Amino acid sequence: MAPAPTLDSDISRIFAHYKNDMLAIRHLHETDENPREVVREITDATDSLIIRLILDLAQKRLNMDDLPGHILLLAQGGYGRRELHPQSDIDLLFLYSKSLDGKEQELIKEFYRTLYDMGFKVGHTCRSCREAIDPAVDPHSQTAMWESRFLAGDWRLFEKFKTDLWHSLRRGRKEHIRRKIAEREERINRFGQTINITEPNIKESLGGLRDYHFGLWLGSLNKCQTMNLVHLMRSHLIDDQRMSRVRDAITFLWRLRNDLHFTTKKEQDVLAMPLQHETSLRLGYQDRRGRLAEEEMMRDYFQHATTLSNFAKHMINKCSPAPFFSHFRIKARKPLAEGFFMRDNRIHIPPDLHFFEHNPQRLITAFIHAAEQKTILSEEAATAVRDNLELVDQAFLHDKDSAALLRKFFSLPFSVENAIQEMRKTGLWECLFPEWRGIANLVRYDLVHRYTVDEHSFLCLYHLEHLFEDTMKYAAERSLLWRDCKDKDALRLAVLCHDIGKGRNGDHSLIGARLADDIARRMRLPERKRKQLVFLIAHHLLMSQTAQRRDLSDSQTAGDFSDAFESIDDLDMMYLLTYVDMRSVSPESMTEWKNNLLWQLYLAARELFVSDSPDEKVLGDHILTQKEKIIAKLTPEYDHRLIQEHLDYLPPSYLLNQSIDNIRQHLKALQRHEAGKAVIDIYPHIDPSCLEIVLVTKDKVGLFNRICTAVMLENFSIEEARLNTRSDGIVANNIVIRETLGEKRIDKSRQLLLQERLHKILTLEGKLPRIPKSPGQSQLGRSSFEKRVKIFNDISAKYNILEIRCADRRGLLQDLTSILSEMKMNIYFARIITEGNRVTDVFYIADAAGEKIQDEQALSELKTSIDAVLELDENHG
To answer: What integer pLDDT is reported at residue 86 of this predicted model?
Structure first.
């Protein structure tokens, strides 16, 4: 904040004093002072400025030492709670008990103008006392007034106002509580249903500061007076343990928010990834045990956010008004095994303080009942579980009865996902599976995953248990595979534990397999299921990598893949595990194209199991059937000879993996293709910020490099590319591009400019123009994701396979393809896969004559050149 030159000398001195106070407070923050003291000091410094300013203006404009007796100046919101952060808005309220005259109105206007001139963000309101307590006042204003704090004016008028306000609120108390609960639901819908996201808003996201405020608001409405945590405890709305946990959480979030505000010099409440590394170092975190400092910080954040989310839910249970007739309704009670019973559609326990101590295995039985009855535990039952977690010791974990109950739980024929979420909330899940603690609230900076590792794993289970609700293609087939799965327990455990090895040094798949083996032995799983579980976790990346990076028309691909499995049941389980894993990376991670690749690989491998025919014949029959279907579908639209010729010129992978719509687009372009001229069509995409380019032209070395250059010069990025080279040298390519200027829709004029640029670059002689680096290109911060460049010479008989995994950036694809172009290497098949900020580029390459590259020196130089480009990116990151 900088003072405006219009401030007079007295006000300038007031503001200078405030700035000196803030410098001292920042020093307190940097020397690790308790953040509670920091926010109080900021509040006190602001109080001093506000009060001195209003009194100075009252003296000058009204010739009075204080505000007139009928005017009050109050602090509201976070400022009213004495919880002001460095860049927070200052919420102020002027109240008056009788009409303001002209001088008084001008005083208030000048007061606010001066604050704006000083650079403050001020939330301001001016209303009569009668208007303020009117029930018709909007709910947000009412909430702010509950927390209002006296700054200047007549104290007796303030006391009367607060008394009248609470008296008014008392009459509609239940409705206010319902409204507040509805507001929270709306907020969660806006900011996300889960705590475990990589860039949370520490104020508004689930488990953020707003959940803390919400809990206080409900308590205040419940008791009709302004409450803090101590008041909630004394009113028996929370116990001292919960109060202590919430205080620790608030202390952490306040320190974090103070740091973001001080560092960015703005009201920065989103914990953005580029900020997380430096923030973690300032908060005292360090890299350790294979984890980045920022990953450690985020882990603590999620633990504290969980505490605040649970606090909000607890206050809802304590303060929600029951329906009027519920007091007169006879509450039916349904007895369950082991002393449990159902009432009000909740699992209850008898009023026995030692209920779980008498039989600790009841801790598991409670959740078996929850899954069987499709419900959750009552609040008192969940609290009793939390209070008895110490019973889950090593003897409990290795007890045969505990193992039998866990086997029963994971084998249940209906969904266990809700019951596992309940286990997680009570803390029982980590006690039963201590191996899980390594991934609890763990963020991995791999540039792809939207959620923490544990949240991703739970989301995988959700998608598995809800396959019948899936909207993607082949959903019915997947649902049947899950329904008929004979080893639901092994698959559920594999889905939950496939990433359990992350956050440790080494290959997370192999580490996870070892940890899962320990779990399986502890649960006394049959030997067959134990081996099945270990295999699925050790190889859980095999199917996705094969589907997305290999030519599926090559019989060797399906053959090598199917050789990894001992039975068709293992293949079915691997397919389901792979699908839900890919589906749960982020909401946009699974596209229909990836879905189709996965399904085609699954079908090809499955046919090798069920057929006695040689591999080549099985695949050949499948390709022939697919070809006949395509011809029958498109013959009414296109000349039969054109279709037949086009399909004959292309490899079998084209028939297996291209949709009918894409083939139709290619045929439409081929009808207009002339020698020496490219046909470029542009189609809309399901995402309005994307387009799909269909390009038919004669192939030549460096063609894809030219396409990349043209696309990026027009401010687009390539999201996905399917390059198809016919045996006659014609290419039929589909390239999905994304707009990079921030526009939500791409107008026709930009599409025409793109077409013109493509035509120009494709015919341009000489050196291509370079892609200018965007001046505003953001840095992603550090990453636990490791780049990789590999060249495979034994996977394909005809081509060398170049595989590159790295962080994405503007112009990357042009740089990579330029290297191939300069070395006279041609691309015959490619997969360009963009996932978040990470790309996987797979090129099937050959020399200029179309022959497989045998020159080891040339291949070594290719890898060295690509490594150098990626190394340069890292050094400039």
So the answer is: 95
Residue 7's pLDDT is what?
A: 62
* Sequence-distant contacts of 204-208: CB under 8 A, at least 24 apart: 204/269, 205/305, 206/305, 206/309, 207/302, 207/304, 207/305, 207/306, 207/307, 207/308, 207/309, 208/253, 208/305, 208/308
Name 795's Cβ contacts closer than 8 Å, sequence gap at least 6.
Answer: 550, 556, 557, 801
Residue 730: predicted pLDDT:
93
Q: Which two tokens stand for residue 819?
A: 């290297």
* Close Cβ partners of 529 (under 8 Å, ≥ 6 residues apart): 487, 489, 490, 520
Give the residue from 212, 210, 227, 125 showing the smallest Cα distance to 169: 227
Which ranges of 63-124 does DSSP label H, i.e. alpha helix? Answer: 77-80, 102-118
- Residue 600 CB neighbour total at 10 angstroms: 19
Report strand pairing: 825-835 vs 716-724.
Answer: antiparallel
Residue the block writes with tokens 């001139």: 117
* Count of C-beta atoms within a 10 Å radius of residue 673: 16
Amino acid at 832: I
CA distance 237 to 514: 45
Q: Which amino acid is present at 381? A: A
Encoded tokens for 570: 């293992």
* CA atoms of 764 and 422, how far apart (whole Å): 63
How far, in Å, are 82, 493, 582 from residue 460 at the CA level? 43, 11, 9
Task: Give the residue from 572, 570, 597 showing the smallest Cα distance to 582.
Answer: 597
Where in 754-824 does DSSP place strands (E)? 788-792, 800-807
Q: What pLDDT score was predicted for residue 61?
A: 87
Is residue 552 within 8 A of residue 558, CB to CB? The reply is: yes
In degrees rounded to 5, what are phi and psi of residue 731?
-105, 145
User: Which residues does 274 contact at the CB level (< 8 Å), separation at least 6?
Assistant: 778, 779, 780, 781
In 10 A of CB 318, how many CB atoms?
17
- Phi then psi dihedrals of residue 153, to 5 deg: 120, -155
Nearest to 681 by CA among 759, 602, 571: 759
Neighbour-count burial for 199-219, b at 16+ CB within 10 Å, e otherwise: ebbbbbbbbbbbbbbbbbbbb
What does the alpha-carbon distance between residue 80 and residue 169 come to, in Å, rounded to a whole number? 18
For the chain, list residues with pLDDT below 70.
1-7, 135-137, 290, 322-331, 445-449, 553-555, 610-619, 771-785, 836-837, 873-877
Query: What's the CA gap between 639 and 654, in Å, rounded?
Result: 19
Q: What per-residue confidence (pLDDT) applies to 447?
A: 52
Closest CA to 811 of 876, 760, 728: 876
What CA–CA distances, in Å, run from 359 to 355, 365, 413? 7, 10, 26
Q: How far apart are the first and last CA of the chain?
A: 30
Query: What pLDDT is recorded for position 405?
Result: 97
pLDDT at 782: 58
Side-chain-facing half-sphere of 126: CA atoms under 13 Å: 14
For position 395, what pLDDT does the model report? 95
User: What distance in Å separates the CA atoms of residue 688 and residue 438, rounded to the nearest whole number?
Assistant: 40
Q: Which burial class, exposed, middle or buried, applies to 63 when counting CB atoms under 10 A from its CB (0-12, 13-18, 19+)?
A: exposed
C-alpha neighbours within 13 Å on the C-beta side of residue 208: 22
Q: Name the token pair of 593.
A: 């194209």
Bridge partners for 490 per DSSP: none
Taking a C-beta distance cutoff of 8 angstroms, is the pair 160, 70 a contact?
no
- Matching residue, tokens 């974090």: 256
Burial of 44 (0-12, 13-18, 19+ CB in 10 A): middle
State the Cα–Cα distance between residues 146 and 133, nearest whole angstrom: 10
d(Cα 707, Cα 737) in Å, to the nearest integer?
Answer: 11
* C-beta separation of 703 from 848 below 8 A: no
The alpha carbon dihedral of 23, 27, 29, 30 has a sign of positive
